[in-house]
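so the lab meeting is tmrw and i was supposed to have these ready like two days ago... anyway. pasting both below. for each one the top line is the aa sequence and the line under it is the structure tokens. i havent really looked at them closely yet so no promises
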Amino acid sequence: MSTAVEPSPSTPATDAPVARGGLAGYFRQWLDNVRGGELGVVPIIVGIIVIGIYFQARNSNFLTAGNFVNLIAQMSPFAIIGMGMVFVLLLGEIDLSVGYVSGMGGVVAAVLLEPGSGQWPTWLALIAAIGTGVAIGLFQGFFISRIGVPSFVVTLAGLLAWNGVVLQVIGNKGTIVIQDKLVIGLANDNMSHTLAWIVLVVSVALYLGVQLATVYRRRQAGLANVPLSLIAIKTVLLAGIGIFVVEWADTDRGIPYVGLLMLVLLVFWNFISMRTRFGRHIYAVGGNAEAARRAGISVKNVKLVVFAICSGMAALGGIVLASRLSSVDTSTGGGSVLLYSIAACVIGGTSLFGGRGKVSSAILGAVVIAMIDNGLGLLNVSAGTKFVVTGIVLLAAVTLDSLSRRRSAASGRA
């Protein structure tokens, strides 16, 4: 009789390194990890700095408060869709349908909110739109997890099918203008100075509380810990960056509400992926599905839920995109939505080979995508050149991931 064995309760391999020996010991271990191929967020941070310097040198409007606020709104749909895509990539799978699933989310919300006798309450219409995405994810996930059809094939079929549904729903209308103030304000209205400060204080306090709780839990278990001095440095750094961002954005229109939405989603999904049993199961399945199955993990259920999460987040991202444009049309969900969403995850550090990455990587990757798109736009570069440059950055990110994995394997870390 087989016995189900719960995998190790230790945090995923992507978590911060811990070491004995205080701050110096921590940095020695961090350097060892970098030499062993665990580069973390170093390449993406360097890339953001280089891109910022380059475009500012070419156009002085790039690093202005107004353009910074624009960047937050521009990156939001790809970041939100990318957060769901990260879970799929952690399994070593792919979802090619997220573009038109996001279109379904935007179209369903727009149709249900059309003024008239059949208009739904805003909250109910948004739940229905996101629920449509979740239902699509469960439908596609069934074929992937239960029937065994490759995710590439199932979601490619979904890409075509949901594109057709969007065309059918929009029909001869061509464009549906969204008039609901709440939905339009999601991506176009900005937080007040007071609200932005409240969000900042709560965020820093929450970060500090989680870090201290983790130290306490590991200390009770007799495990090595992150030095308290490092937590203090990170907290001060986070607070300093937050103060700068809030004050800088308020010299223009302030931080958009969609920035708050991304922050809430980031905290929630980061907690699910890093602090829950389900999150550990995702990393276990992505690292080695057969070993996870032998450990008693229901691989099929994990895959089913993950595809539902991905499509639900895609629908939410579609609502945000529709909010930005204040309308939906027959091209909703098409164009660069799919490519930019996947590219955001990979550029941010999520591995295409599964088992490695974080939800925050979708945010970082979306920042890079938005900076490239925005910066080239300011330089009046054609759409074709934007795709070429984004493709080169994506190829560089995947190449770096492959080399990192090879180095990790050579050093015995993978």
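ok protien two:
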Amino acid sequence: MSVDTTTVLTERLARRGVRIFSAAVLIFLVAPVLIVIPLSFNQSTYFSYPMTGATLGWYETIFSSAEWRAAIVNSFVIGLSATAIATVLGTLAAIGISRPSFPFRGLIVPILIAPMIIPIVIVAVSLYLVFAPLQLINTHLGVVLAHAALGTPFVVITVTARLMAFDNNLSRAAAGLGASPWTSFRRVMLPQILPGVATGSIFAFATSFDEVVVILFIGGTEQRTIPRQMWAGIRDQINPTILAMAGLLTIFAIVLFLAIGWLQGRNSAPSR
């Protein structure tokens, strides 16, 4: 066997090994999540395989339950409100720290993204200590502000990454032609950074939608979101309705993933 033939076989085996390893990693990551979906149709009242039969009853229970419907509505209201605040704050912060003359950037940036790094329990306790004197505990506004604080770092990171490819000469040219700062931002900068803003907003919404620790500290007994309702269901009595809701959340997460992938595709496309 020649040296060239041996090299080709080695490369082929290496590529096959990488593919097998990649497939194994994907299965390891995705299988525990996807296994929830078929189990949510199980007739059994226990979390068990093999399935004893198929039913849509657990999904019907979700949409016929006043508690679950209230939790779904509350999650969307809190998530959208927190996302709106996080998007505005994160975009403004990213624009500010991206300016070459911005002072103490090396100190400010770690502070802005701290909620992503610090353990969520510590963040929740800190927010409780800050919000309690302001009478924001057990209020809708307190939960929205807390979730906005958690989502803002995602917007800062994605918008900052987009701003690295933005040519500041375009803003200077707009100002030279008489455009006001607001007009220059709206007509020149915003269209360029919009994919980054949208990607950060989706991450912020997903963070709020999936959050359970902070709402246990900040939210009152009436502040029920989907994760908190699931937590209460697991704690009080294990019910397959939780699996049905987990299946719906998995589908919702897949939709968000597809949206992020599409926006990242726009991010990687050359700016015009």
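from a quick look at the 2nd one: The chain is about 75% helix and 0% strand. The radius of gyration is 24 Å. will dig more after coffe
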